[in-house]
Amino acid sequence: MDRFLRAVEVAASLMLGVVTLITFVNVVLRYGFNSALMDSFDLTRMAQGLALAWGIAVATHRREHITIDGLWGLMGPRGKRMMDAVARLITALFLLGLTLAMAQRAARNMAGNLSTAELGLQIWGFHAAMTLGIALAGVAALLGLRSQRKRPVA
């Protein structure tokens, strides 16, 4: 599992690198040569979406997302466990609902043959990959809820 998560992290990092590279090259072309990369806006948008979706999956699994623990710190061990369980459940429900909405969007894009303006790249494939990342985040939240009973409170 750690190898898979590491691969996902590397892929998400590479997508952020792609966003940076495309943006840099596009700026140089625009201001230096009065030209631009074809579909640079769409490609950076899709790469950033992939990085975020898959990064959310890893952060949810590892419990490394941003938290505010002011109230949590005042509770006893049982209260902390309950608050963690409620937070994980809400997170899982939200992510699974988002997965459904994103899957519907990908299906509509596929049915409508939606593509980028200049290169004609099909957008539904990008959306399907983002949907898979969010779905894995929802599953990670549910698995974390199940395994939380075995884990001591920090």
Automatic annotation (TrEMBL):
Q: Provide the alphabetized UniProt keywords.
A: Cell inner membrane, Cell membrane, Membrane, Transmembrane, Transmembrane helix, Transport
Q: Does the keyword Cell inner membrane apply?
A: yes
Q: Alphabetically, which GO biological process terms does the record hold?
A: C4-dicarboxylate transport
Q: Where are the transmembrane segments?
A: 12-33, 85-103, 123-145
Q: Which PANTHER family match?
A: 2,3-DIKETO-L-GULONATE TRAP TRANSPORTER SMALL PERMEASE PROTEIN YIAM
What the protein does? Answer: Part of the tripartite ATP-independent periplasmic (TRAP) transport system.
Please report the name of this protein according to its UniProt entry.
Answer: TRAP transporter small permease protein
